Amino acid sequence: MIPKPITGVVLALMLTLLAGGALSADRVRLPVHAGSFYPADPRALGELIDQLGQSARRAQPDLPEKPSLRALILPHAGYPYSGPTAAHAARVLSEHQFKTVLLMGPDHVVGVRNAAVSPVQAFQTPLGQIALHPAAADLLKQSELFTPLPPADDREHSLEVVLPFLQAYLKSFQLIPVVVGRAQVDRLCAALQPLIDSQTLVVVSSDLSHFLPYAEAQVRDRRTIEAILAHDHRALLHDPRAACGSQPLAVLLTMAERFGWRPVLLNYLNSGDTAGDRSRVVGYAAIAFFGESPIPAMTQSSQFVTPEKGQVLVKLARSTLMEKFGLTLTPAEAERMRSALSDASFQARCGTFVTLKHQGRLRGCIGSLSASDPLAEGVRRNAIHAAFHDPRFSPLTETELGQIEIEVSVLTEPQPLSFSDPEDLLRKLRPNVDGVIIRQDYASATFLPQVWDQLPKKEDFLGQLCLKAGLPRDAWKRGRLEVSTYQVQYFEEVK
Fold this sequence. Notes:
The protein is an alpha+beta fold and about 500 residues long. It contains 18 helices and 20 strands. The protein has helices at about 5-20, 40-55, 80-85, 135-140, 155-160, 165-170, 185-190, 215-230, 235-240, 245-260, 270-275, 300-305, 305-325, 330-340, 375-390, 400, 420-430, 460-470; strands spanning about 30, 70-75, 100-105, 115, 120-125, 130, 145-150, 175-180, 200-205, 210, 260-270, 280-290, 350-360, 360-370, 405-410, 415, 435-440, 445, 480-485, 490. Strands 2, 3, 4, 7, 8, 9, 10, 11 and 12 form a 9-stranded mixed beta sheet that branches. Strands 14-13-15-20 form a 4-stranded antiparallel beta sheet. The chain has a 4-stranded antiparallel beta sheet with strand order 16-19-17-18, with helices on one face. A hairpin with a 2-residue loop joins strand 5 (about 120-125) and strand 6.
């Protein structure tokens, strides 16, 4: 551990608080681990990061040509231990490269359910303040997924320890800090996905194995790194000892698979290689993810659907079904709904689907693929059709209404997918990203991207889709199929 020079961090905080327009102390998350995990003196901290970065820049492997960086995995131990690995961020980051950093780290302290966000306006380190992006406060409106983490209770080190590296290399950015506990990975991914654009870097803070003998740690860490490079988030969740940040890593790998981000291992070491003995080591990896674009191409009509507006759509679907049974919202709820729907974005035209589930099983799903109806009107109509006109199910009853879960999907405009042969079709489909439409003569069918969760193998996905269209299971292999793809934002009901 590094000796704790209190004077450096105190001086930095005094300068910050004395500056014009400085935030009050209760609105700033102060550095808890300066002087223990990393130097508290700003000059010493900056010099250490610079030295580590210079060494990392001389390292291999080669990076992709014309890379478009989308995400990073960095370790969060004391700098004598994990700093040489974390410094490999210097190889892929540059000044003002990103305006926003979505930083996820594991919960070592509190025991949060799903995730937590500090309700502050800035994070402080010895290198200065980092303002929070307004989206951080918006996440707390989704109370089922995100809980507030008051500064007085926030001793979590996983976010704090990587911030000086990001400050040193990016210089300035806004922060969305998320501490991830035992999470519902798909729901958390869906909530965070709309925040990502070309100016946003996703960073996950995680160490690998803990306190194994050197050789055993190398074997386990190699297996974990292979799972990360293969986008296999399930392997991490099945073995929580693989990495302390297995939950936020699972969220990142889900995003990476959906967006087509390609991981590259920048560095792997363990504490036995840096500053510790080899009887009980901790593993560290730096991994970068590259992609041509941060998200699948979305039409203007779908880009505006924030998580908050998505919940309005889900509530609209439920209130529409309530009206069919003669049930009404309270006057206050009805007024809130009218006010929310007055936003012009709900009049944009796009395809929508409404899905009903009962105890996790499908209970109805109807939608429209074309952008022919205003968003709000499409949700109303498809809610009715999913409940009462899906030919696979009997009409919904009033008793069932209180038991079903509702999901709303907002679609991009479908685009034809050109392919030369069945193998080329398999190569071009993107699991968990693409919704797929097939047509042959008068037969057609579609699966939403969510169906990939049940049918992860491309051959099975296409086979079942052919059966749904009334075609032979292997019709996709015969060369006469027309295929189009689209993407969705989907919103689950928060009760």
